[in-house]
Amino acid sequence: MNEARVADTKPVILELEPGDYWWCTCGNSANQPFCDGAHQDTGFKPLKFSLADKQQVALCQCKATQNPPRCDGSHNNL
Ligand code: FES
């Protein structure tokens, strides 16, 4: 498997409704931070996560977080 592409070097802060989401792990999606199917043939698969309540989340876009899909500050070490 190749390394994930760095989509951005900062997280995106979003207010999300309750529901299921698919976070892009490969970095190739044009709809960051969510999967748009661009991972095809890369060996990466999207990460599904679910929110029970409406909440603000900081989602990783550098793809180096150790706590996906949430930012853990790893972009500071790139
Ligand atoms: S486009 Fe990146 S995981 Fe689907």
UniProtKB/TrEMBL annotation:
<dbReference type="InterPro" id="IPR052950">
    <property type="entry name" value="CISD"/>
</dbReference>
<keyword id="KW-0479">Metal-binding</keyword>
<feature type="domain" description="Iron-binding zinc finger CDGSH type">
    <location>
        <begin position="9"/>
        <end position="45"/>
    </location>
</feature>
<dbReference type="InterPro" id="IPR042216">
    <property type="entry name" value="MitoNEET_CISD"/>
</dbReference>
<keyword id="KW-0001">2Fe-2S</keyword>
<dbReference type="InterPro" id="IPR018967">
    <property type="entry name" value="FeS-contain_CDGSH-typ"/>
</dbReference>
<keyword id="KW-0411">Iron-sulfur</keyword>
<keyword id="KW-0408">Iron</keyword>
<dbReference type="Pfam" id="PF09360">
    <property type="entry name" value="zf-CDGSH"/>
</dbReference>
<feature type="domain" description="Iron-binding zinc finger CDGSH type">
    <location>
        <begin position="46"/>
        <end position="77"/>
    </location>
</feature>
<protein>
    <submittedName>
        <fullName>CDGSH iron-sulfur domain-containing protein</fullName>
    </submittedName>
</protein>
